[in-house]
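Customer escalation, tier 2.

The customer says the design service returned an amino acid string that "doesn't look like it belongs to this structure." They asked us to rerun it and document both sides in this ticket. The original structure tokens are below, unchanged.
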């Protein structure tokens, strides 16, 4: 085959790939809202809003991707994220009445360490119970959502926790080359996730377990270990997102992480990750995250009410799941 022919075949494959289609959809959505808002959504302020909205959702979407690729789903993110955030804030705050460690704030390194440990612990519990006790992950994470939300309410007493250390602020409000640090963090984590999923044994095992756990076991993969591992990774990423949000807001309230579970599921499904596991790319999730962010920012810009935005988000999720189910049935018939 000639060089020209190989190039033509490569371009044809790119053109018909689902991720390339998502890229075209992203461009189309950007142009549509730019026209509807007379360019406000593509202004410097509009782009900054999109990036700020995308940073947290993007990190949590990566967490959901690892779980969903194994055929599971994690709906505990709101409660777990709130618990992680409140735990960090309640130990680092200088407010005596809300500090849970004797009124004296712990060093920022200790507070962040506690948040990371809490995220990993919640992830481990989710993975261990669902895999070793054969309980559906949906049920397990529903339980941990309620438990962690209750713990957050207990630790924070329902108050908004403020007076956090100034040393925390750069993690959420600092900039490098004009971009907020949370955006750089999100981009770095997407790259890291790509490397793990595409170029490591752990990543290949995740796809194998999601595609067919029985076959994966017969091929020598420790299925339970992989199932626990993806939830631990998800918990770690959720903790990183919590640190970023807390540093950006310099406060924690019951509204912190509100809606993050639905947003992460929407980004992953729009990104093409199958709810049945074993199929999807991190590049698709990256594009899906930005598609939803552009739509959300655009609807805000044209004055759409929250209920309209909720209906739109729900419709997008249903459409993505319907397409995924249709494609899965077609593959099973082949």
């Amino acid at each position: 085959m000639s060089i020209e022919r190989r190039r033509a075949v490569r371009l044809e494959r790119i053109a018909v790939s689902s991720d390339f289609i998502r890229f075209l959809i992203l461009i189309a959505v950007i142009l549509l809202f730019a026209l509807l808002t007379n360019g406000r959504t593509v202004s410097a302020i509009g782009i900054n809003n999109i990036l700020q909205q995308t940073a947290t959702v993007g990190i949590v979407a990566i967490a959901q991707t690892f779980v969903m690729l194994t055929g599971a789903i994690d709906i505990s993110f709101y409660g777990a994220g709130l618990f992680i955030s409140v735990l960090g804030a309640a130990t680092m705050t200088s407010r005596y009445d809300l500090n849970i460690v004797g009124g004296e704030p712990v060093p920022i390194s200790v507070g962040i360490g506690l948040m990371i440990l809490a995220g990993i612990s919640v992830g481990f519990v989710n993975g261990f119970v669902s895999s070793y006790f054969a309980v559906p992950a949906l049920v397990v994470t529903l339980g941990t959502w309620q438990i962690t939300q209750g713990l957050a309410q207990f630790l924070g007493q329902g108050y908004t926790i403020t007076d956090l250390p100034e040393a925390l602020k750069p993690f959420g409000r600092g900039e490098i080359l004009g971009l907020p640090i949370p955006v750089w963090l999100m981009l770095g984590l997407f790259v890291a996730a790509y490397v793990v999923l595409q170029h490591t044994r752990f990543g290949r095992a995740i796809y194998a377990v999601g595609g067919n756990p029985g076959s994966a076991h017969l091929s020598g993969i420790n299925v339970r270990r992989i199932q626990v591992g993806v939830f631990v990774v998800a918990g770690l990423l959720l903790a990183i997102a919590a640190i970023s949000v807390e540093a950006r807001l310099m406060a924690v309230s019951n509204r912190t992480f509100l809606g993050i579970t639905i947003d992460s599921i929407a980004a992953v499904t729009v990104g093409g990750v199958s709810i049945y596991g074993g199929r999807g790319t991190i590049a698709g999730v990256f594009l899906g995250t930005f598609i939803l962010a552009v739509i959300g920012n655009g609807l805000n810009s044209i004055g759409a009410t929250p209920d309209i935005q909720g209906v739109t988000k729900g419709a997008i999720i249903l459409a993505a799941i319907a397409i995924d189910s249709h494609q899965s049935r077609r593959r099973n018939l082949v």
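Tier 2 assessment: The sequence is consistent with the input. The chain has a mean pLDDT of 89. Residues 56-257 form one domain. Sent an explanation to the customer and offered a walkthrough call.
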